[in-house]
C-alpha cells in the first residue's frame, strides 16, 4: 500500500513539474503622461510560466500558461471574455537568450456602450488605462523611455519540483531502511 502511495505521489509531482518554468521580470522607470514627468521608481511587475515545446529557444504565446502583469493573469482571464468584456494576451515572445515582448490587456463596456474602460500593456511602448461614462473621459499612460530598465529573473524551482525531490528522497530513505539488516541491540 505504501509503495503505491509513494508511486502515485511521485507521478503526480512529475506531471505537475511538466507545466513549465516561471520567470519574473520588472520594468522600472516610465514617463507619466498625466503629470508629464519621468518617474524613475515607477514599476511594472510581471511573470510568465511556460515551456519551450518546440525547442527553438523562444517561448511564444501558445507555449505559455500564464502572463501576469501587475497582479492580473492575462492568459487565465481569456475564457472570461464575452461580448461586453475582452481580456487576454494578444502577443508574447521571450527569447531564452534575452528579449521580452508582449501585448496584453482588457476592456469592457455596458451593453449600450455608455460606460466602459480598459487597461493595456505593450512592452517597449507603454501601459495605458482609460475609462469613459457620460460627461467624463479619463486616460493615463506610462510610457517606456530609453531610461526604462528591465530585469528578468531566471526560473525558480516550482513547488511541484520541490515536492518531486522530497518524494524521491522519501522513497529512497524508505527503500534503504527496508533493506538494512535488522540487528539485535549490542550486536556490532
UniProtKB/TrEMBL annotation:
Coiled coil: none annotated. Keywords: Signal. It comes from the Bacteria. Residues 1-19 form the signal peptide. InterPro entries: EF_Hand_1_Ca_BS (IPR018247), Ice-binding_C (IPR013424). The keyword Signal applies. NCBIfam families: PEP_CTERM (TIGR02595). This is PEP-CTERM sorting domain-containing protein. It comes from Pseudoduganella chitinolytica.
